[in-house]
Structures are given as C-alpha cells and as structure tokens.
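Chains adopt folds. We examine one example:
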Amino acid sequence: MFKKIIVSCVLVLFLASTVMAASSSLGYLDMQKVFKQYKEATKAQKELEKKQKGFKEEFEKSQKKLLEAEKKGKKQSELTRMKADMEKKLESKQKELMQYNQGLSQKLQKNILAASSKIAKKLALDLIIDKQAVIVGGMDVTDMVLTELNK
C-alpha cells in the first residue's frame, strides 16, 4: 500500500514537471472552489437534492406499505409481487435521477470549459489544469473563471 502511494506521488511529480516544461504559460483552476461559488452549480445542487429527497420519500413510503401488508398477514406470493412492483417503479425513478444528475453535470462542465477557454485565450495561456495537479508555478485563474461564469 505504501509503495503504491509513493509510486503515485512520483508519477504525479513527473507528470507535473513534464507539463510545466512543455508549457510556456500555465494556468490552474480550483475546481472545488468553482463548484462551491458557481451560481448555476449551487442551483443545480439544490435541484438535485430536492429530487433525491422526493426519491427517498417515495422509497420510504414503499417500505411502509410493504411492512403494513406483512402485518395484515398478506400471503407471501402477494408480498413478493408487491415488492417486485415497488422495486420496478423505484428502479425507473432512480434511473431518471441518475440521468438528471448526469445531464446537470455535463451542462456545468461545458460551461466551465467554455469560461476557462475564454480566460486562457484572453491571458494567452497554453494550458489550464486542475489545481490539485500543480506543485509549483502556474497562474491561478479560478476567480477570473468564476467571474466569467457568474456574469
């Protein structure tokens, strides 16, 4: 385990130094900060949480109905059928939720990429990478990208 961590660190250092050497001007972006302060990302997170809450409530309702049916002494075959119907319904809702999340993520990434590209062009940067990959050097463009996104 320790060897894997050391090998990973060495690899990251090597890649970062290679990128730095190959690029004459480098910018970096703090993606965590962007997702916290980008208005659309915050709005999307709230919408997703609302939909997740609705899914959770529906799941809990289904569980409650199943328990009530058990308490009423319903036959095992009927309980099995009820459970299968509920699982099928919940599975489709879960897929919808996952697709919704994926759609939101793609939209946000597209917007962040467009804003980053615009800033890179404006500052004549050859490359913008995630802040986590930077050890030394580069220019922090996070606030400029956020300003562009939140216009």
Remarks:
- The first strand starts at residue 26 and ends at 29.
- The chain has one domain: 2-50+93-149.
- The chain has a mean pLDDT of 85.
